[in-house]
Amino acid sequence: MLNSEEVDRKRARVEAGASATNPTATLPGRYQEAIVCPQMSVKKVMQHLAEIQAQSRCVVHVVNGTNQDPSAVVLKLATNTQACLDDCRNRIHEYISAVLSTYKGELPEGYERRTLTIPESSVGSVVGPRGAVIRAIQRDSGAKLDIAPRLERTTGGDQELALVGGRDQVAAAVWMVHDVMEGHYNVDAALLQQEQDRRSKSISMGGQGRGVYAGRHGDPNIQEKRVIYVPVEHPLQLLVATVREVLER
């Protein structure tokens, strides 16, 4: 008698075999979704499709044309967890929104532009350290957010935040921005995500997690530098503990 986990694995193998022999068969994966990719964003998404699948652990099958629109490009997503499906969807929409943010014509159906006024006191919080918060909101929502860089702001005061993307993606981004301004957003999580994205990108480029980060130092053997503030009353004890930790690695 198979337990539920074994049944799920067997179902996945059967579905995988069916899809290999029949391209129109249902993709393997308990959680599935279809995204119609706007024509102007197809090239950008295709360039990053392998990266999207690897980082989100989601299979993306590209279908050209639908009954309603033969020229449409449909991305069919399939995976075994809701979290992976959400991550894959957001990554795809992030690239779609990035292209649409520079598009001057009318946006495709289902996509929109919106502007939020950010109070001067909240601009730094919305951008975050090294832009970590605004990038995390883009990743978590799939919308594109643009605010004038500090050096390009002619005056102080409130700033305009431009949002572009699917209606659901823009709505999610607006909700997250309000969370930031109300002090409910986890900035530490945003910084961690920024570091994880940097490492993932470095590994995908063959850098084994070091990439550009290692190049910031003069010695290529140095992968990381840390600044430790030592209390003046306990310098010797901390030094001994640090040396012991290094020797034990």
Automatic annotation (TrEMBL):
Leader sequence segment: none
Origin organism lineage: Eukaryota, Sar, Alveolata, Perkinsozoa, Perkinsea
Record bears the keyword Secreted: no
The protein, known as: K Homology domain-containing protein
Organism domain of life: Eukaryota
PROSITE patterns: KH_TYPE_1 (PS50084)
Domain K Homology: 110-182
Region of interest (Disordered), ranges: 1-25, 198-217
Any one Pfam family match given in the protein's UniProt record, by short name: KH_1
Organism whose genome encodes this protein: Perkinsus marinus (strain ATCC 50983 / TXsc)
GO molecular function: RNA binding
UniProt xrefs under PANTHER family: KH DOMAIN CONTAINING RNA BINDING PROTEIN (PTHR10288)
Record key words, sorted: Repeat, RNA-binding
InterPro entries: KH_dom, KH_dom_type_1, KH_dom_type_1_sf
